Amino acid sequence: MKIQTFMEGIHQLGISFYTGVPDSYLKALCDFLMSEYGVGNHHIVAANEGASVALAAGHFLSTGNPALVYMQNSGIGNAVNPICSLVHKKVYDIPVLFVIGWRGEPGTKDEPQHIFQGEITQSLLNILEIQHSLISPDTSPDEFHKDIDKAQKALNQGSCYAFLIRKDSLENDFKNVYQNSLSISREQALMEVISQSLPDDIFVSTTGKLSRELFEIRESLQEGHSKDFLTVGSMGHSSMIALEIARNKPCKTVFCLDGDGAVLMHMGSLAIIGSHGPENYIHILINNGAHETVGGIPTVSQQMDYLGLASACGYPIVRKAEDQRQLSEILKEIRILKGPVFIEIDTNLISRPDLGRPTTSTIENKQAFMDTLKEKQ
Ligand SMILES: Cc1ncc(C[n+]2csc(CCOP(=O)(O)OP(=O)(O)O)c2C)c(N)n1
Fold first, then answer.
1. Contacts of 261 (CB under 8 A, 6+ apart)
2. For the chain, which ranges sit under pLDDT 50?
3. Which among 114, 169, 299, 305 is most buried, taking Cβ atoms within 10 Å?
4. 72: CA distance to ligand 1 center in Å?
5. Is the shortest distance between the CB of 372 and ligand 1 below 6 Å?
């Protein structure tokens, strides 16, 4: 379905405020919102999906109109609490329209982190008492109009409603290309970090293309993958996985390779690292100012003072690199300092179109990683 047709239906519902966390299945919607409204009065890219539900609640309280919340189905978990304890009928009875990308739909091929989430997505919506319609590549305008009528009825009654979007179901005539003028890419920055690392260093990498690039860098260097834990799902949580590994393995240096969208999603973790942070923890933030993996929709990270934030959270060492030379110098300097260390690397949004996916399974990854952590130094 053309995104214009979809949005005409949405406008009929009296919706004029949109918020969410982007998803590749919703690229057409996100690009439409960015080109039509940018970010501002009508559109906010939220830190996490639960925050979007809260924004929708605030919008309803202040205007009387429901808002649209978009997300990948991975984000339902982040949204469950405000769905149950804020907008549900038995609490404040606030209608919200959800648009949810259905990764891992049974019968389709998808990555391991999407399989279980995909299997339970419809049951989850049922448990949450959110009536929903499917949007498929072949949904006709007539079917869609009937679904819009159902959504209207639900929203009028103060209930939530969801459109569950199957792969390749929303299309746009153009794809927005997001870019900045920085000199290094995420992959070049990762290559520098890996090539300067020592044999005993351990890496926990964030969700999205960063982990895929790390996997391919190890392949190209023929180093194996046993020092890397790829956080393929659970966006925003790699820093906590790394923290507890660093605490339990004080003889190893543990790197968390993070993304700015992921850091924003659960930013409170920075304060926990700062206050409990072990000396052997190095937190690397790849800041491209965007959710690059799912289409490049901007985050608020370009305006953020991450070094100030990390200092305020208690990281004793904070550094920033904007090019390869600065990065190389910082990586040499920090080896002799006591952490936790925070390094922001500002990168552009270039990624390889031929980037692959891990060819070893998540279980193999876990086992090899645990074996490495067991080894004596
Ligand atoms: C809870 C949750 N919401 C949304 C997603 C979809 N998603 C996967 S990667 C990604 C973008 C990550 O952005 P960032 O951390 O800045 O890394 P980048 O892709 O820019 O390298 C998103 C939104 C997800 N996997 N999980």
1. 21, 208, 235, 290, 291, 299, 301
2. none
3. 299
4. 10
5. no
Shared domain for 320 and 199, answered yes or no, is yes
User: Looking at the structure, do residues 51 and 84 belong to the same domain, yes or no?
Assistant: yes
- Alpha-carbon distance of 83 to 172, in angstroms, equals 30
The contacts of residue 28 (CB under 8 Å, 6+ apart) are 3, 170, 171, 172
How far from 168 is each of 19, 136, 356, CA to CA, in Å?
A: 21, 8, 20
- What pLDDT score was predicted for residue 94? 98
Residue 181, domain member (yes or no): no
Helix H or strand E encompassing 78: helix 76-82
| Intra-chain end-to-end CA distance of the chain, in Å | 57
Same domain as 195, residue 148: no
Query: Among 132, 165, 198, which residue terminates a domain?
Result: 165
Residue 105 is encoded by which pair of tokens? 């739909």
Q: Please give the backbone phi and psi of residue 237, each rounded to the nearest 5 degrees, phi first.
A: -110, 0
Is 82 near ligand 1, meaning CB less than 6 Å away? Answer: no
278 lines ligand 1 (CB under 6 A): no
Peptide bond before residue 340 is cis, with ω within 30 degrees of 0: yes
> Cα(357) to centroid of ligand 1, in Å?
15
pTM reported for the whole predicted model: 0.97
CATH number where 107 lies: 3.40.50.970
Q: Is residue 299 part of a domain?
A: yes
Could you tell me how many residues make up the chain?
A: 377
Query: Is the domain of 158 the same as that of 29?
Result: yes
Query: Does 174 reside within a domain?
Result: no
Domain that holds residue 210: 186-374
